[in-house]
Amino acid sequence: DSHLVVAVGSDRDWRGYCHAIEREELLDDDRFNPLEDRLANKDDLYKIIDPIMTRRTTDEWLDILRDYEVPCGPVYDTLEIWDDKYAQSEKLLEELTKDSLSDSLPVVRYPGNFEDQDSFAETGPPELGAQTEEVLKANGYSQEKIEAMKDDGII
């Protein structure tokens, strides 16, 4: 019915995932243990799990996987995210403002957290050309060369 992402990046997550999909025998399959082997044999693994994952709805899988503490989430299009209760509760939905515009732009914050760091840009990108001189100087252009480019209509 839709898509979901499942992040099985550790052996603990792998155990939970195998239990969630009721395929515990995969835990003893040498092709898929440890993580490096799962990655090396991902084509074989996908052949096993793809048919399993199509047997339930996205919402059913999300409930099951979360019960087993397997990192997962729905894949949304740009409109669906605004209705997601998790995104709302975690304050992942923001309005980006730009000085030159009276309207704001709705954006989705990066969901990761960094120690003592905010992952949200509070303003929109600069206007086209607003930082041209700064960028040129940072790339070794002299003020004289920049002025010459201005005079020639290049910038």
Attribute tags:
single chain; 155 residues; alpha+beta; two-stranded antiparallel sheet; 7 helices; 38% helix; 10% strand
Topology:
Layout: E1 3-6, H1 11-20, H2 35-40, H3 42-53, H4 58-67, E2 72-75, H5 85-89, E3 93-96, E4 105-108, H6 132-138, H7 143-151
Antiparallel strand pairs: 1-2, 3-4
How would you describe what is shown here?
- By secondary structure, this protein is an alpha+beta fold.
- It contains 7 helices and 4 strands.
- The chain has helices at 11-20, 35-40, 42-53, 58-67, 85-89, 132-138, 143-151; strands at 3-6, 72-75, 93-96, 105-108.
- The strands form 2 sheets. The protein has a two-stranded antiparallel ribbon with strand order 1-2. A two-stranded antiparallel sheet has the order 3-4.
- It starts with a strand and ends with a helix.
- 6% of the residues are buried.
| Assembly state | single chain
Instruction: Return residue spans where pLDDT drops below 50 for at least 5 consecutive residues.
Output: none
According to DSSP, the number of beta strands is 4
User: Largest sheet, order of strands side by side?
Assistant: 1-2
Give me the number of helical elements.
7
What integer value in Å does the Rg equal? 24 Å
Element order, helices and strands?
EHHHHEHEEHH
Strand content: 5-15%
**Residues in helices, as a percent range:** 25-40%
The shape is elongated
The whole-number mean of residue pLDDT values reads: 89
Q: How far from one another are the termini?
A: 50 Å
Quick one: biggest sheet?
A: 2 strands, antiparallel
